[in-house]
Known about the structure:
This protein is α+β, with helices and mostly antiparallel strands. The protein folds into 2 domains: about 10-170, D-amino Acid Aminotransferase, Chain A, domain 1, CATH 3.30.470.10; about 175-340, D-amino Acid Aminotransferase, Chain A, domain 2 (Alpha-Beta Barrel), CATH 3.20.10. Helix content is about 25%, strand content about 30%. It has helices at about 65-70, 90-105, 110-125, 200-215, 260-270, 280-290, 325-340; strands spanning about 10, 35-45, 45-55, 70-75, 75-80, 85-90, 135-145, 160-170, 175-180, 220, 230-235, 235-240, 245-250, 275, 295-300, 305-315, 315-320, 350. The strands form 2 sheets. Strands 1, 2, 3, 4, 5, 6, 7, 8 and 18 form a 9-stranded mixed beta sheet that branches. Strands 9, 10, 11, 12, 13, 14, 15, 16 and 17 form a 9-stranded mixed beta sheet that branches. A hairpin with a 2-residue loop joins β16 and β17 (about 315-320). The model has no long low-confidence stretch (mean pLDDT about 95). Bound molecules: 2-OXO-4-methylpentanoic acid.
Amino acid sequence: MIHVPAQSISVKKVEQSRVSTVDINAATMGIHFTDHMFVCDYENGQWSNPRIEQLAPIATHPSAMALHYGQAIFEGLKATMGKNGPVLFRPQMNAQRLNESAQRLGMPDFPEDLFVEALKQFVWIERNWVPTAPGSALYLRPFMYADEAFTGMRAATHYKFIIFATPAGPYFSKRIRLYAETNYIRAAAGGTGEAKAAGNYAAAIKPTELAKKHGYDQVLWLDARNFENILEVGTMNIFFKIDGKFITPNLDGTVLAGVTRNSVIALLKKKGFSVTERPISIHEIIEAEANNTLEEAFGTGTAVGIAMLDEIGYRDRSIKFPVGNPVGNEINMTLNQLKTQEIADEFGWIIQLP
Ligand code: COI
């Protein structure tokens, strides 16, 4: 891995921060943006000019290749206010996953050291934007896209890597309802399902809008062949608890390798639960409901955190989840306490800033 000295990132701060104009503790994710952005350019086969500068629109050529051929990938992670100042949660995992996405889409790797160093410096500069309200965080969006002006189908030779940030409150404040999609698919073997590619989200927008029209919160994606095996939720991975044991779909190439998913598996195991990653048929969930062994289910994701499931609509039936006293809520609390340093980080997941 390339070591990036901190001083190689040039910094030009704004004269006046806008933070006092925003109620960051009541902010909905994606509405307000912080003062700065990190930018780095790729040309002649290398990344250059890493810089933190004022957040501003970027001129785009009409033939910028990302707009036409979709070479665009992104990440999401959060900075939270810990007891000793702002912290990052497992940024190295995002750095690795960005590069896995980049490889699938024929894009260049971004140096992992620089990814983490850029986040550290960027968040430290934006530290007054990190909310302190329970469940709130500064959501960080690293992304990479092809900005080369060229009309034709090939890998681009110019890219931009950017990080911006938006203060974010809790995503869902209630148990959610999912619509199991049986017309549209998100991913198939050999496709881009495990990449965090912008195009995956583009293909999900229409089915999600349809699901919302019918009163659901997000889509539950099923396998592309038979619409039976459960893959993931719109912006989350998914876990079920049946007869005291947890199961979650295995990473077979059609499922995003969620950082929260990975952390939840570790936390559940630490609490003594059995967690199995394997194919899960929706019929198994229907059967568990019928024989009263279906105990709970939840989605996991960076933006959402942990969202308890209320219901899944599948074809002409409804699968209901008991309210009870779910382990998912307990895990959510543990994750939040780790991120605010109310409990010790025995996993080495937290990066203290500066
Ligand atoms: C995240 O959870 O960070 C995501 O990328 C989901 C996003 C589409 C809101």
